[in-house]
Amino acid sequence: MNPHIVLIEDEPAIADTLRFALERDGLSVTWCALARDGEIAAQQADLVILDIGLPDDSGLEVLKRLRKSSEIPVLLLTARAEEFDRILGLELGADDYVVKPFSPREVAARVKTILKRSQKSSTYSQPSIDNHLFQHDTQAKRVQFAGQNLTLTPSEYRLLITLLAHPGHVFSRSQLLDALGEAAEDSFERTIDSHIKSLRAKLRTIRPDLDTIATHRGFGYALEKR
To answer: What is the pTM of this model?
Structure first.
């Protein structure tokens, strides 16, 4: 069966163009204009496209509730260009975001990429971690840092264990995108920067004295050896 997308968007003109682009790519789409209807429909979806500004609730609040019971992929739509909103959405568990105005073809491409990534994650594995600050429970897909559990989004988890598997190795953004199953495009590479920023914030909350992930300008990112 074709992947089923639930689109939660209150503007009919935007919903119509997105539904056309997605269905043209072979995806089935259910459109909901209200948050409460979208949350119900999301229970049977393979991916949710979620507008942050909804008339009956905040899309970020919807995302919070979805993440309490599900790891369904979520792509955020937002008219807000501020970095705070983008970072908050990623911290709450969104897989990616698109800022309005956008190309429906770009959204469709990102949806297909996220779906491909989620399919890979079911068999995802990494070598064991050799770093005394981190403990990795591969069965539960949980990472502890300095004895405390990290609350990670699926993308943050995959990025972190990729870095942990090879301490000191500098990964380019395109290599990190490969770990997420994404194509190496400029817009996707900026998403890597956002995920890394969020990861650093979570690590520094536990150990503010350590810079655990190093930036190698012009090259990429590496986990510092400890």
So the answer is: 0.59
